[in-house]
UniProtKB/TrEMBL annotation:
<comment type="similarity">
    <text>Belongs to the PheA/TfdB FAD monooxygenase family.</text>
</comment>
<feature type="domain" description="FAD-binding">
    <location>
        <begin position="103"/>
        <end position="457"/>
    </location>
</feature>
<feature type="region of interest" description="Disordered">
    <location>
        <begin position="15"/>
        <end position="44"/>
    </location>
</feature>
<dbReference type="GO" id="GO:0071949">
    <property type="term" value="F:FAD binding"/>
</dbReference>
<protein>
    <submittedName>
        <fullName>FAD monooxygenase-like protein</fullName>
    </submittedName>
</protein>
<dbReference type="Pfam" id="PF01494">
    <property type="entry name" value="FAD_binding_3"/>
</dbReference>
<dbReference type="InterPro" id="IPR050641">
    <property type="entry name" value="RIFMO-like"/>
</dbReference>
<dbReference type="InterPro" id="IPR002938">
    <property type="entry name" value="FAD-bd"/>
</dbReference>
<feature type="domain" description="Phenol hydroxylase-like C-terminal dimerisation">
    <location>
        <begin position="485"/>
        <end position="701"/>
    </location>
</feature>
<dbReference type="GO" id="GO:0016709">
    <property type="term" value="F:oxidoreductase activity, acting on paired donors, with incorporation or reduction of molecular oxygen, NAD(P)H as one donor, and incorporation of one atom of oxygen"/>
</dbReference>
<dbReference type="InterPro" id="IPR038220">
    <property type="entry name" value="PHOX_C_sf"/>
</dbReference>
<dbReference type="InterPro" id="IPR036249">
    <property type="entry name" value="Thioredoxin-like_sf"/>
</dbReference>
<dbReference type="InterPro" id="IPR036188">
    <property type="entry name" value="FAD/NAD-bd_sf"/>
</dbReference>
<keyword id="KW-0274">FAD</keyword>
<keyword id="KW-0560">Oxidoreductase</keyword>
<dbReference type="Pfam" id="PF07976">
    <property type="entry name" value="Phe_hydrox_dim"/>
</dbReference>
<keyword id="KW-0285">Flavoprotein</keyword>
Amino acid sequence: MPEFWRQNSQKLHRKLSRADISPQNTETVDYHRTLTPKSSYSSSYSAKDFNALLPQERAQQKQLQWRETQESLQLFDPLQRSALQQFDLNLQSPPSPPPPTSSDVLVVGAGPAGLMLACNLIRFGINAEAIDNRHEKTPTGRADSLQPKTIETLKQMRLADRLLTKGVKVHDVRCWQSCAEQPLRRISKDRQFPPSSLDCLDPYLLLAHQGFVEDIFIKDIMERGVEVQRDLSFVDYKSEIGQNNPLQVICKVNSSQEKEVLTSRYLIGCDGSQSNVRKVMGSRPVGHSSDVIWAVIDGELETDFPDLYSKVAIHSDEYGSILLFPREQNLTRLYIEMRKDLREGSARESQETVMARVEAILDPYYIHWRHIEWFGHYQIGQKVASRYQDEENKVFIAGDATQTMSPNASQGMNHSLHDSFNLAWKLNLAVRGLAKPCLLATYEIERRQVAQELTNFDLEQSSAPVAASTPTARNIRFNSGYAAEYSPSVLNKCQPQKSCSTLPLRPGTLLPPARATRCIDFNPVDLHLDIPMLGQFRLFFFTKNTTDTYGFLDILSTHAISHNTFLGRLTHSINTSYTLQPPLAAASDDFIRPERYTPISGLFTFALVVQQKSEDVENREVPSLWRDSKFTVYADDIPESDTRGLGVTEKWMGGVKDGEVGILVVRPDGYLGCAEKFRGKKEEGLKAARWLDEYFDGFLQCTC
């Protein structure tokens, strides 16, 4: 049984916490969430003292990790011990701490895309560093809307709660219009994401400015002992041919203009629409440009306009269009079209001119500007990078470095976060040596396809913002984030002998919400959210009861951990890797308890769903694999609480017959990888085992 999550949590309790030696700063560290109990969190250490102590702390951690690795070696059988020795030839002597300029992954840019990527990699235990040319996180302005799919992703990461308490939930959209014949009037009032059109748990936009989003990632990585290196700009990189040769990354310290050379196995450019990493890589933005200019204002308003707390699209034939969004702390965001025929001189008109335009469009309603927090302009364009990665799969770009589009539909930050979410788990497996080259190649294939679809949609909609805000079926899918689907590939595998249409879900799509009862504690849960995202695949097995299919499931139980099967060797390979390079724990992990979901394998969570009453399921009677995985045994017995009134078996598998077993393989980013149904006979268990081996052998490799 792998112990890397539990052992790492215990290590965190024993080591000196960074939060305990850092200067007091309640804006960047949640002190009440640090693990080491203290009577007071005040610190007499200065910032200079803190920086001097960090190398000592890192060295102590490395020494402790080496000693505990030596102890843990005695727990493995000879075959595993041999694999450990091959994995790291320096186990016989304490390792020296790596130079601070060396990393597995270097992330350039600490906006939402860069921080999402760094946060996931650090959680997975990858030695990742993030650098940024700014001296602080985003204080005001920039992106501000989170779509339903992004909220779902942050819930799966256990990071959504902090944002949900700060942001404003906007459920409706209202459209207004004025012309020469008629004054300003409301022409429609609708739900943005009607339940009949979109099956999701959070059918609203969450309005919270970009700095809040950045903050949840910054706090999470700081709780794990890592921080963003700021005031450091990317300049260039040098790459030698060969996958094992590290990149030489040249940076510049902004305050001193001194050059600094960092080394890393992978370089990821999350440095925005003017990305320097993209330029050096030789990629270029391709697409549509226009001379359409929009202004944006964040401010506190006093007005008698009645729809200030909804998403509003306003069009005036005489003065142009406005998009209005309520924001946190009683703020309002306004996007104002600066029509070419109405511009006075420069395209980028002054704040006062833009405010006057707003007042003209909202007439006859009055508006008083109590406070302006942020003001800016942007030029509409829809472009996608010509390529997302270099020939050797060492250098990648993500987020706004890959695509640009208008902010009117709230796509940019949401799309950027999911670029990083797609790439993070693939990099984790690549760094650990388990990924075949084709796995990293799927990043560009999948995310460029989605970017192209989004920019085409944005090009159609940006010329008519009122029409774009109308909740048509197509608008709903794109504006919610659920339109992002992937084509068939080694990751999204349809069965050649059967049509994917025989199942309700197609590989490459997301799972809809579904309810089940967790049998160990009778807790009704949202099954797509209950198992946290730990960089692992989730394998769901559906059956009416385990009595009729026990032999089938028992064969798979043995197959999953055997040294003689591909699936079993993958399990031993990842457990070996996580023992040597464990996930980084944080205080919040004490409440999530990651080890509950990976008791057998760090690469797979095995979940069993039975169509029985939860009180009729006994853990001692289920096949051996789920006796250890007791937190992932579920009863499909609460269809009445589902968004569509369906049981999870019906919703995800189209139901299973008596004596039948359905299997869903869900990727670490929540997309369906493959699905199949089998007769639940014992001999069919071997067929299902070979089917799983074939799927994972398409893009993974064993290291032991």
